[in-house]
Amino acid sequence: MNIILLGPPGAGKGTQAQFLVEERGMVQLSTGDMLRAAKTSGTEMGKRVAEVMDRGELVTDEIVIGLIREKLEQGSEGGFIFDGFPRTLAQADALGALLAETGQTLDHVIELQVNDDVLVDRIVNRAKEAVAAGGTARADDNEESLKIRLMEYYKKTSPLIGYYYAKGALTGVDGLGAIDDVRAEIAGVLG
Ligand code: AMP
């Protein structure tokens, strides 16, 4: 089973993806994590995307589609969770084509529904927790970048809700509840 977790930054995609990895042996494909890894290790691509990411803008479709293509070609027995991908209609089309080419299907698109007030609080808390734990906050977990990330989401990613609804693949889940309630709701959808 392959699924997409769709939702704005701070909706809980990464948290819920982690549960699915533990419970179902699925493989989480987070393009954000892959790009941060490239940034940290200082690859050519990492250097190219660093500023764009820190500002909160989307990197090019070509780069993220390339990252996903590599992973899909490797396959996964437990299935893939796409977390933070696709984020544009072009990426959604590319994902459909890649899955078809590799003989795989897209089984569910779960939209984590939240409101903006909660997102800002969650992201600010995530930054504080990272620092309290002795680490550093994500470079884009600040109010300035968050505003841009939200705008990018509404302009470029939210059209995917209609796109997957029209394909009959979309299920909305209330992302405002307690983490375990959201987890149970997702489990109900996936069966
Ligand atoms: P995330 O960890 O999913 O919040 O992603 C962090 C940042 O990485 C985003 O703000 C974008 O700059 C970049 N990014 C991650 N995934 C994508 C994607 N699918 N398309 C374009 N940019 C992405």
Instruction: Quote the average pLDDT.
Output: 96
Give the overall form. globular
- Point out poorly predicted stretches: none
Strand order of the largest sheet: 2-3-1-4-5
Q: What structural class do you assign from the helix and strand content?
A: alpha/beta
**DSSP helix count?**
9
Provide the succession of SSEs: EHEHHHEHEHHHEH
The rounded distance between the terminal residues' Cα atoms is: 11 Å
Total number of β-strand segments? 5
What compounds sit in this structure? Answer: adenosine monophosphate
Helical fraction = 55-70%
List the helices and strands and how they pair.
Blueprint: E1 3-6, H1 13-24, E2 27-30, H2 31-41, H3 44-55, H4 61-74, E3 80-83, H5 89-101, E4 108-113, H6 116-132, H7 143-157, H8 159-166, E5 170-174, H9 179-190
Helix pairs in contact: 2-3, 4-5
The protein binds adenosine monophosphate.
